[in-house]
Amino acid sequence: MSQEPLAPLIKLLSKLPGLGPRSARRAVIHLLLGKENLMAPLAVEMQKAVEEIESCDTCGNLDLKSPCHICTHPVRDQNVLCVVESVADLWALERNAVFKGQFHVLGGNLSALDGVGPDDLRIKKLLERLQKGEIHEVILALSATIDGQTTAHYIQDQIQESKFKNNIIITAIAHGVPVGGELDYLDEGTLSTALKSRRTF
Fold first, then answer.
1. Which residue numbers in the chain have pLDDT < 50?
2. How much is the pLDDT for 2?
3. Distances from the Cα of 138 to the Cαs of 11, 38, 84, 98, 126, in angstroms?
4. What span, in angstroms and rounded, lies between the C-alpha atoms of 201 and 44?
5. In sequence order, what are the beta bridge partners of 81?
6. Secondary structure (3-state) at 83
7. How far, rounded to the nearest angstrom, does the alpha carbon of residue 19 sit from its chain's CA centroid?
8. Contact present, 136 and 80 (Cβ < 8 Å)
9. So what's the pLDDT on residue 187?
10. What residue ranges do the domains of the chain occupy?
């Protein structure tokens, strides 16, 4: 069989993180060989996700409802907000169950190289949340990369320039997180220590 009919599927899969064209082609062959037990159920679950999962308008998390279950949880601390780059980072922090406050997903980092500016991220939405006056501490839990730290400094400047009525403390997770490291790849112990050892930013 020619691979031509599968080219669109291979092209789509190759856009996933960690998959290039060759890996995507291998994945498609594997799926096709397990058509009944793997590909058909996967297609059903993906369609369900398309129809049912939505982005939380408040924090940017993915859930079955908006606001999501984290934003509406009755016992979470409403005064502490943890800013992360991605939903994967939010889930990584939720896995270790140490942080009991609110989250805000930026949707990436500032990157001049990739053409990502402040308007491409959820920074304005963050400032709108802070304007309400409920948040007393903002934890910047961003990657220890150049782009991550550039984003952290930009957010710090924006918060300080906005002169909110309440005095907002800006902290950053301690970087026992390795330089160049991304939160989604770290173990629970490292994340837990980093959160507990946060410092004034």
1. none
2. 61
3. 40, 43, 11, 16, 10
4. 45
5. 102, 138
6. strand
7. 20
8. yes
9. 77
10. 4-52, 62-200
Contacts from 105-109 at CB under 8 Å and sequence distance 24+?
105/59, 105/60, 105/61, 106/60, 106/142, 106/151, 107/60, 109/85, 109/142, 109/143, 109/145, 109/147, 109/148, 109/150, 109/151
Cα(90)–Cα(81) distance, rounded to whole angstroms? 12
Contacts of 2 (CB under 8 A, 6+ apart): none
Q: What's 87-103 look like in SS3?
A: HHHHHHHHHCCCCCCEE
Residue 17: burial class (beta carbons within 10 Å; 0-12, 13-18, 19+): exposed
**Rounded to two decimals, what is the model's pTM?**
0.82
Q: Which residue blocks in 34-142 are alpha helix, DSSP H? A: 40-52, 87-95, 123-131
Angle at 48 between CA 42 and CA 52, to 5 degrees: 150
Find where tokens 């400032």 sit: 127
**Architecture, CATH, for domain 62-200:** 3-Layer(aba) Sandwich (3.40)
Q: Could you count the other beta carbons within 10 Å of the beta carbon of residue 14?
A: 16
Q: Calculate helix-pair angle for 87-95, 188-196, nearest 10 degrees.
A: 90
| Start-to-end CA span in the chain (Å) | 58
Give me the residue label for tokens 């939720």.
94
Q: Which CATH number fits domain 4-52: 3.30.1180, 3.40.1350, 3.40.50, 1.10.8?
A: 1.10.8
